[in-house]
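Q: What would this chain look like folded?
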Amino acid sequence: MKHRPADVALAVKRLQYRHHRALSQALAPLGISLVQWDTLRHLHRTPDASLHDLAVLTFQTDQSFGSLAARMADRGLIERVPGPGRAVRHRLTDEGERLRAAGQDLVDGVVESSFESLSAAQLDQLGKLLDAVLGPDPAA
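A: My prediction, written as structure tokens:
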């Protein structure tokens, strides 16, 4: 069967939607949303990230991420610290790191389950194909 680009694009979107729903459900018992966990993950990988950088990484606007960051700081998940000039940097708190780690185990389970029908070679091939389509990250 020949796959048309539009069909492949729709399949990618459907998989992303399936992941979003399953991950949101898995993370709910921790009291965090998927976008909050994604923020914790990115801060773990990129300590002292700026608001703008985190907004880009989490597919948010600067304004919506600013509101999210304020709520997360109020909950004690992240701290906002002054950076150079007017910049504000963000860091994980101990509680944020605890929830990130607990969430990582849940996320790993959901994603591994999603791809369990693929062999290791097929999963590697899929990753390479997606890398080829996405090309270099302009934000990197």
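The two ends are 36 Å apart (CA to CA).
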